[in-house]
Amino acid sequence: MKAATASGTTGVVTKVTEESLNLTVSLKLKKALADKGANVIMVRETHTCNMTNVERTDFWNKSGADLTIRIHANGSESKKASGVLMMVPGDKYIKDKDMLLKSAKAGEYIMEGVLKNTKAKSAGTVKSTDLTGFNWSKIPVMLLEMGFMTNPEEDRLLNSDSYQNKIVTGITEGVGKYNTYINSGKKK
After folding, report:
1. Helix boundaries (H) for 45-160
2. What is the CATH number of the domain that holds 114?
3. What is the domain extent for residue 166?
4. Nearest partner of 43 among 21, 66, 61, 16, judged by Cα
5. Tens of pLDDT along 110-119?
6. Which of 9, 20, 80, 117 could cross-link with 166 by S-S, CB 3.0 to 4.6 Å?
7. How far apart are CA 16 and CA 158, in angstroms?
């Protein structure tokens, strides 16, 4: 059981909470995707969201969305931990192979876009089987950990407008590539 609303980690230099950073980047992403013609449905657009993780997943399952993009920032006890991490669902509980493949492709393309635009270090891609938001999802889903707020250098970057814009550009490019992949009918 997790709290419905949690602030997550906090920037070691900026003192900005993860939930605040996530919302800032998500609102920028909503605008960028909408400018490209996407219909974006947000789980939250304010600092308050009283839905549990199961309720959030049920919300996006019923929304008619084609893809769920979860935006987060990482934290670690080590101030040296760094890099962008992509998380996609694993197959321990999910048996829908098409959903797993689409989630992996979305994660791959979005990670490529973010790394290309930010020049950040990759912390890799992890297949996770312990996230409610993955295991209850019926649509493709991925979770982007934008960097470590517990790393002073990354905290400063993550909280700069220009770096956030690079992340958003990378995600937007990745979504474009993913849509091309989905619409091509060539599921490799």
Report:
1. 53-62, 97-118, 132-135, 152-158
2. 3.40.630.40
3. 18-184
4. 61
5. 999 999 999 9
6. 117
7. 10
